[in-house]
Amino acid sequence: MTHDPRLEVFANHRTVRKYKAVSLEPGHLEQIVWAAQRAPTDATAQMYSFVRLTNPALREEIARVSNNPHMATASETFIVLADVNRLKGLLELKGYDFGNWSAAAIHFAIGDAVMAAQNMLVAAELLGYQGCWIGGILGALEHLVEVLELPEGVLPFAGLTIGVPDETPPVRPRIQTELVLHENKYHKPTESELETALERMAPITARGDWAQTLSRYFAVGGTMEAREITLRKVMASQGFAHVSSDLNALFARTLEAGYAELLIRKVGSEYQAWVDRPDRAHGGTGSSPYMAILNAILEAEKDTATINH
Ligand SMILES: Cc1cc2nc3c(=O)[nH]c(=O)nc-3n(C[C@H](O)[C@H](O)[C@H](O)COP(=O)(O)O)c2cc1C
Fold it and tell me: Rounded to 5, what percent of the chain is helix, strand, coil?
């Protein structure tokens, strides 16, 4: 399909990870943040924030722990946050009790944050820059919560770098439109349509095998599974977890780590949990039963990893 020339910015989009060592032109930072704030937002609430990283040492360190070196070298680096903390403050200021809607907070605050940050990226691209979203921050979530001093109700979603490109990567392919645009009802892709998608995406990979690339992230033992437990922990500590539905998964994890029993009790204002098996036990404490169990399981998993290696 030939695109309408007014949509040129989308034709030129490519993720860039190598930047010239220059600053944004004067006034451009304000322009792109303005564009971010023009994004639509659920219920007028604006459930997002950005932390702009300007301290070089902090940028270096976050780039290292997130495994994305361009976070240190881009003209601008942001951490994109889902944020219901400010909303809570607004309501409490006027005497309203903040509701209990942690699952909806994940849904709408992340949606808001993504819309605002993507506006920011498109605005930057319209001004002649390029950028990169960074999910790699999930490898350093607990650390980010600490160093950025994120209060409850604030959850990092991703990083975003913006700068003047010092590389021209190819425009990367996409799967066929028929698989993403459905009419009136969902069309489950056939095997042959999936094969076509794999062929279309093959050039994005070094070995011409997109399924293999995807498997490194999404298959058993991939990056996503590795991030899962910490993400759940940080979601819980930041007030975003829909905790009760997680308990079955948590107990399944204790079994996987070789522990058959899970004990929990309240001591003062804290909860203590143990995962037990005949030869050893591991404890954890937390401000909720969920956090206590999770901390106990993390200890047990560390121990299991030591035994297995
Ligand atoms: C939520 C999200 C997280 C991403 N995380 C990373 C990342 O950690 N590191 C990176 O180099 N690229 C990252 N990317 C960029 C994607 O790899 C890139 O968008 C994809 O390969 C398609 O390429 P294109 O944007 O050039 O079309 C991320 C993109 C998104 C939307």
Answer: 50, 15, 35
Query: Which residue among 133, 205, 214, 227 is best mutated to probe the pocket of ligand 1, counting the most ligand atoms within 8 A of its Cβ?
Result: 133
pLDDT in tens, the chain (309 residues): 899 999 999 999 999 999 999 999 999 999 999 999 999 999 999 999 999 999 999 999 999 999 999 999 999 999 999 999 999 999 999 999 998 888 899 999 999 999 999 999 999 999 999 999 999 999 999 999 999 999 999 999 999 999 999 999 999 999 999 999 999 999 999 999 999 999 999 999 989 999 999 999 999 999 999 998 889 889 988 988 765 556 777 788 888 888 888 899 999 999 999 999 888 899 999 988 888 998 998 898 888 776 544
Radius of gyration of the chain measured on its C-alpha atoms? 22
Ligand 1 centre distance from Cα of residue 117 (Å)? 13
Strand order in the sheet with 76-83: 48-52, 76-83, 154-163, 130-134
pTM for this predicted structure: 0.85
Ligand 1: atom nearest CA of 169 is 26
Identity of residue 294:
L
Domains defined for the chain, CATH in brackets: 5-163 (3.40.109.10), 177-218 (no CATH), 242-308 (3.30.160.20)
